[in-house]
Design brief:
This protein has one helix and 22 strands. The chain is mainly beta and about 270 residues long. The longest helix has 10 residues.
């Protein structure tokens, strides 16, 4: 099946503060269905967003970034890149932007009767004294850690975290796995959107990943990304953190630059089998 995406109904509003607000809807050009949770942002800057479940988005482009690069990316599609001013002009003249379906190589399946060993990989802290998470966060805000793989191949079966506080039960998140380049996240290695809510107000949280058939061969970054927050923006979700373990990495919004956050490690871990 070949799929393309269209961005329709775009509006352009010039603010008094030297920025352009672009609003639109991301849709599949073939099926006409909306594409939810697409990352749209100015590369390596702190201006980006995520389309909602109906494909709608709003992006503010500051005038000083008019020559910078905008990237549109979605799992299962080839990314599209524009210069900001060309992106605005193109949408004015032609509101359709197509993304080509990405060819995905199927992982080789090996059948064996060997009993697999189970191990928890990552940061296992349950501290209430140190924490990290999401408050007043922009859509596309991500944080996570590097997971060190012990054996090849390794099957990722569950994701775990410890909740210290949660007033954002309606906030929606995406779990991402990335390969590594120059010590930072590079390309997403998940082939499906792993979308979830966090209902627990405090204590252990587990997300079952068995249905996603995630197999890794090397160390990878695991992150949690905020993709929906229609409540009061002061709603928060915080996780346990600690000084020991793998340090936290973060980016403030879609397509922004990754940053290492000192020596504090967010308490994310996975149950793995190998």
């Amino acid at each position: 099946m070949r799929i393309s995406i269209s961005i329709l109904c775009c509006l352009f509003n010039f603010s008094l503060f030297g920025q352009i607000t672009v609003s639109g809807i991301i849709k599949d050009a073939k099926t006409k269905e909306s594409i939810p949770y697409v990352n749209i942002g100015i590369m390596n800057k702190k201006k980006g967003t995520v389309s909602n479940e109906n494909g709608g988005f709003t992006l503010e482009i500051p005038s000083e970034l008019i020559k910078d690069t905008i990237k549109i990316s979605s799992i299962g599609y080839e990314s599209k890149i524009f210069i900001s001013k060309d992106f605005i002009t193109k949408l004015k003249e032609n509101q359709v932007v197509e993304l080509s379906e990405k060819a995905t190589a199927l992982n080789e399946v090996t059948v064996t009767n060997k009993k697999l060993k189970e191990k928890v990989l990552g940061n296992k802290t349950k501290s209430k004294m140190m924490r990290g998470g999401f408050r007043n966060a922009e859509l596309g805000n991500e944080l996570g850690i590097k997971i060190k793989v012990k054996k090849n191949p390794t099957h990722i079966k569950k994701f775990h975290a410890n909740i210290t506080s949660n007033t954002g039960e309606k906030m929606k998140f995406r779990l991402n796995l990335y390969d590594i380049k120059n010590g930072l996240p590079n390309k997403r290695i998940t082939n499906e959107n792993i979308i979830f809510n966090i209902d627990a107000q405090e204590g252990a949280f587990t997300l079952n990943l068995s249905d996603y058939d995630i197999v890794v061969e090397d160390d990878f970054f695991l992150t949690v990304e905020l993709i929906k927050n229609e409540e009061n923006k002061e709603s928060e979700v915080f996780f346990s953190a600690g000084l020991l373990g793998n340090a936290t990495i973060s980016r403030l919004t879609s397509q922004a630059e990754w940053e290492k956050l000192g020596s504090i490690g967010i308490g994310f871990n996975v149950t793995a089998e190998y």
